[in-house]
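HOLO CASE FILE
Compound: 5-O-phosphono-beta-D-ribofuranosylamine
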Amino acid sequence: MSALPIAILASGEGTNLQALLDGPAAKGMVRIVGVASDKVDAPALTRAEAAGVPTGRFPASDYADRAARDLALADWLEGQGAELIVSAGYMQLLDPGFITRFDQRIINIHPSLLPSFPGMDAVGQALAAGASETGVTVHFVDEGVDTGEVIAVSTVPIPAGVSRGELEEAIHAAEHRLLPEVVTAIARGEIGIGEGSRR
Ligand code: GRF
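Model generated. Tokens follow.
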């Protein structure tokens, strides 16, 4: 079986990118053919470069609007040969044209059990709500904010008195397990992507 070519979108630290580099990519299940960011100095880009992965920088200031930026981003990703796009801490909404072009080929990791706590600061939302558990969701990306079809979830308990830092750490640990698992299952064909995969 040949390795599935995947690309990652990341705006920040890139610890989920690192989990993919160290897991499915190191095992030869996937080939990371590019890492793209809206932030020209995102630490995720440094991680990619250290691993010899090509990087693309797409700051909003270089483009007239989101549609123009995401057209350039899509052209670059396609040029890299990506068959799956993994949004891992990418802090931008994707243009509808981009989503249509990669229909059912974009997945996102979100730090809550969707549909609870979508959007920004999901960890803060869970703490403010006094929830007893939260978690991590991997889902297909559609035009809404964290509304696409759920692929897999992992639950994280919220013990009484837990600090925000402790909860964030537990959620990151769950992300670093779940995202490589899902990407591996996609690479093995156990989870379908692309045209006709909609359940
Ligand atoms: C993760 O918690 C992800 O769920 C959220 O942003 C964070 C990114 O972390 N959307 P990293 O850049 O992968 O370290």
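CASE NOTES: The longest strand covers residues 30-37. The helical segments are 15-25, 43-50, 66-80, 96-101, 122-128, 164-187.
CLOSED: yes
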